[in-house]
Amino acid sequence: MVAVLALVGLALVFGLLLGFAAVRFKVEGDPLVDQIDSILPQTQCGQCTYPGCRPYAEAIANGEADINQCPPGGETTIIALADLLDRDPKPLNPENGAAKEKMLAVIDEQTCIGCTLCIQACPVDAILGAAKHMHTVIEEECTGCELCLAPCPVDCITMEPVSQEVGTWKWPHPELVTEGGR
Amino acid sequence: MKEYALILVSTVLVNNFVLTKFLGLCPFLGVSRKLETATGMALATTFVLTLSSVCSYLANAYLLAPLGLEYLRTITFILVIAAVVQFTEMVIHKSSPLLYKVLGIFLPLITTNCAVLGVALLNVQQEAGFVRSALYGFGASIGFSMVLILFAAMRERITVADVPVPFRGSSIALITAGLMAMAFMGFSGLVRV
Predict the structure, then answer these.
(1) Which residues from chain A sit within 8 angstroms of residue B72, using beta carbons?
(2) CATH code, A127
(3) Which domain does A137 fall in, by range?
């Protein structure tokens, strides 16, 4: 009984001490770090080479890291960070991995009204069709840039992930393969 | 005075905690890859070891001994060490952000350093007084720091040396640690304690 009381008492004293210390020695964090941290996706994946989102946010705030090292966040995060820090957005650093799997535009042919707006928007001429005729996407040509989504008046274009199979697999581009990866 | 000097020499060189008593080997091998991190770890350990040595002595002398609860020593000391480490971390975080950055992750890691608990328990075993406990803890941490920093410096050199393939990495580190321990055996006749 005495033993239990002694241990509980000791634990209580230390608990009070630590609780007091937590209040008394509270450290005000850097507000910028908090803001950056709230933009990051909090996946804690470590692909940015930092041990988590918070350390990466601190590194950005200190100017040690660039804003384009977060693959899960992708372009959205980079643009948000660029806005916050008043820097120019830049493409994701390929050393940190790809943003997401390759996407492909797919036109719902039942809904398409044949307006040709998406054909004009497509930068790689991957959409085939004519005025008042149904359009379709040439899968081999589509880069998944999503530029055709906005102009479509009936929203019949969706982005669908391309699953990597034997038939769709391609060698990675040479410039994306770094010495570090090999 | 002479006695205190002897305690220091004895704990730093003769009864070095890492190389003679084989305590605290985990950080000795774990954080000795770079001189910088080794220095950070050495600083943090010195601080915590001395403080926890004193606190454990106080807990033992004024709580456990009067109540006749000596058998609760280990768990009490673990509690004391954990609390001291946590408290130290908070104070350092507030008072010296620079030191906090240097010590970084090593500060909480010290909680699990068996040399810290070892010093506290050995103090009780030797029936050391307050000053002796503090000195014993301080000497042990200085010995730990010295060996850790020496070892880190050696490992930095070894990484650029032409080591035979089967010995590379951890094996050469362990061999080096063994040779260091043998070298420290040379001190064993220095002080009779």
Answers:
(1) 3, 6-7
(2) 3.30.70.20
(3) 101-168
